[in-house]
Amino acid sequence: MYVHLKWLRSYIKLILTVSAWPGPIKS
Length: 27
Fold this sequence. Notes:
Blueprint: H1 2-20
């Protein structure tokens, strides 16, 4: 469970980083 939460947290952080990038990375 702890590992899952840790993974989920890293995943959300990655999504926020990607959405913060301007450019064609989102598409």
